[in-house]
Amino acid sequence: LTGDFTWTVEAGEHEISVFADMDNLVLESNETNNDKSRTLTIVEPEAPVSAPKLATSASTGNGLLGGTWWLILIVAALLGGGAFIAALKSFRKR
After folding, report:
1. 12: which DSSP letter?
2. From residue 45, how far is each of 4, 14, 36 by CA, in Å?
3. What is the distance of C-alpha 55 from the center of its chain?
């Protein structure tokens, strides 16, 4: 004989008991062997530990010319070009 039941498991200790002929309706030579019990201990699962993520830069694999280096090069070119034009104007006035 088998049986099914639905059970929402909670953490802790639980006793599962099964009874046969609970009301002693079946005539037997031994009426003391009609039950069986087992204790189950349910533990709450621990949250999985995830590996820390490494910080990545905005420019991956671009080397020296990636990311903010372009901005620095553009500013340097503008400043250098401005200084060059200022020097040319200064020589023309002489």
Report:
1. E
2. 25, 17, 28
3. 16
Classify the phi-psi angles of 55: left when phi > 0, otherwise alpha if psi is within -120 to 50, otherwise beta.
beta
Q: Which residues contact 16 (CB under 8 A, 6 or more apart)?
A: 37, 38, 39, 40
pLDDT digits (tens, 9 = 90+) for 6-62: 888 889 999 988 888 878 888 888 888 888 999 999 998 888 878 777 766 555 555
What lies within 8 Å, CB to CB, of 59 at 6+ separation is: 66, 67, 68
Whole-angstrom Cα distance, residue 85 to residue 79? 10
Pairing of the two strands 35-42 and 12-19: antiparallel
Residues 43 and 10: beta-carbon distance below 8 Å: no
Determine the Cα–Cα distance for residues 71 and 37; give it in Å rounded to an integer: 75
